């Protein structure tokens, strides 16, 4: 469990510094304090998931997931910006149902927040197997197509991290 907490601290610390874009001493101290606070807040999930063992696959997923999220964030921002700048682009807003494979509460939370933080999508409801997502441009309302478009790429890495 200690190694999982240390991994979380390192990930939080590096993400903070990457987002801050500075290696000033005040940023490093702030990153350390905030990372410790986040590790303390998430310690309960570390206890409940303490059976997990740190592996190379998990470390790689922890490194790759933020990059996948940033790519999705960038593409979604460009898509929404183009729709704002060119109102002639059609939109077809609606709520779609997507199938979720993640079982851990923390994994489901990170997935729901990742979807919500991506412009054009908003997690509005969750159940045992499904999330209901408001999507700014529903291309195909089927569960399989919506799951493929919105969830699959995130879930692949979150499943390794959280189960």
| Estimated structural class | mainly alpha
State the shape.
Answer: globular
Major beta sheet summary: 3 strands, antiparallel
How do the strands line up in the largest sheet?
1-3-2
Distance between the termini: 16 Å
Please bin the fraction of helical residues.
Answer: 55-70%
- What is the arithmetic mean of pLDDT? 85
Radius of gyration: 17 Å
Count of DSSP E strands?
3
**Number of separate helices:** 6
- What's the helix-strand series? HHHHEHEEH
Strand content: 5-15%
Regions with little confidence, pLDDT below 50 for 5+ residues: none
Oligomer: single chain
Report on the architecture of this protein:
This protein has 163 residues and is mainly alpha-helical. The chain has 6 helices and 3 strands; from the N terminus they run ααααβαββα. A hairpin with a 3-residue loop joins strand 2 and strand 3 (130-135). Helix 5 (105-117) crosses helix 6.
Q: Which short descriptors sum up this protein?
A:
163 residues, mainly alpha, three-stranded antiparallel β-sheet, 6 helices
In short:
With 163 residues, the chain is mainly alpha-helical. Helix content is 64%, strand content 11%. The chain is built from six helices and three strands.
How do the helices and strands line up, and which of them pair or pack?
Blueprint: H1 2-20, H2 25-41, H3 43-48, H4 56-85, E1 94-99, H5 105-117, E2 121-126, E3 130-135, H6 143-162
